[in-house]
Structure formats: C-alpha cells, structure tokens
Amino acid sequence: MPEALVLDADAVLWSTDRSAVEGRHLLLLLHGYGADEHDLYPLRQYLPDAFAVASLAAPLAPPWPAPGRSWYPIDGLDGRDSSHVTRAAQAVIAWIDEHAAGAASVGLLGFSQGGAVSLQAMRLDPRRFAYAVNLSGYASPGEMPQDAELAELRPPVFWGRGTKDDVIPEVAVTHTTQWLPEHVELSGRVYPGLTHSVSEQEIADVAAFLDKRLTALDGAGKV
C-alpha cells in the first residue's frame, strides 16, 4: 500500500491566525497542477469576509521542469486513476483532523486538480463538508463507498468551466455533467470563451454562491 501523503502545515497560507479557526466557517483553497498555495490565495479578497481561509499546498512535486506542486501525478496512462485522487483527498481530511477540527463548518474551493480532490474528499466523508466549489475540475470516475450517502445528503456544489478549456478531457467533462446532478445540489455555469482559467464573472458567481452558503449555515445554527 502506498505511503500516506502528508500536507505541509507550515506552507499553508491563512487569512487569520490559525488559532482563531475554532468556531469559524473555514474555506479551504486547493490549487491546480503546477501551482502552489499562493495561486488561489488572492481570491480571498473577493469572497465573504466571514470565512477563515486556508490555502493548502499540494503534497507532491511534479516532474521537472514543471513548477509548483501537484495533488497527484498526471503523467503516464494512469494519470487520472481515481486512487491517486483519493489519496490526495485523504491527505486533506487528515490535515483538517489535525489543524481545523474545531471549525464550525468546512467548505472546499479547488481549481482543476484541486477541484477533483475537493469532490473526492466530499465523497470520502460526505458529512464533513458543507459545500464544494469546483473550478475547471471534474469528478473522478468510479464508485466510492459513500456515494450513496452523498446522494442522500446532496450537499451544494458549484461547478464552473469554460467552453475553451482544452485541458480537461471531454470524457471527464461528460462524466462530471452526468455524475454531479445525481449526487449533489448542483449550481454553476459554463463560461463562453473561457480557457482553463478563472474569470471575473466566475469569481462573482462563486462569491454569490458562498454568500448563500453562509446564510444557510448561520440559519441552521439558530435552529
């Protein structure tokens, strides 16, 4: 069995003192392949202030000369093997257990690989995560033991992608288009002309989605 992946806690970028996460709504940012914890962190200025934001660093280094970090390998025929995605998602859950167990809620926002890992983490432990945002990512193929529970809970998921995104294979997009509505409360948008990237309109849509999540979470806490 492969050795478990471990995230570097010292590499995490926090929008607040990490000791102040207790009782806060926590939003985790998971970057894409070849990026690092700095990539998505600037998005925090466009998102609701009520969130404590933690931008995680993926555990692997991609093959030279690719820069940055990766959540799982993409080289070779097994590059999109679900077991790689699952292993990365397990590392995210282990990090939460150690560093953010006291958060009032945990949400996930991932780009590309980070989006795939976000959905996989939600599939591993459906009750742990309040929602997920998947930007230019996909749902990993295959069945997971908790998929039926996920489909019963139907947590909110935002999926955004561009019509000019030529990085994610069409077969993965087709699978995700079918899989998400069967398992989650899906919202999202396809952005004309957008490549494998994030646009201002998409950020605005994500902010609106997160505002709704805050309203629902705070309302649930008052029941």
From TrEMBL:
Phospholipase/carboxylesterase/thioesterase domain boundaries: 22-212
Record InterPro entries: AB_hydrolase_fold, LYPA1-2/EST-like, PLipase/COase/thioEstase
Taxonomic superkingdom: Bacteria
Keyword Transmembrane: no
Matches recorded under Gene3D superfamilies: alpha/beta hydrolase (3.40.50.1820)
Swiss-Prot/TrEMBL keywords: Hydrolase
Family label: Belongs to the AB hydrolase superfamily. AB hydrolase 2 family.
Protein name: Dienelactone hydrolase family protein
Source organism: Microbacterium yannicii
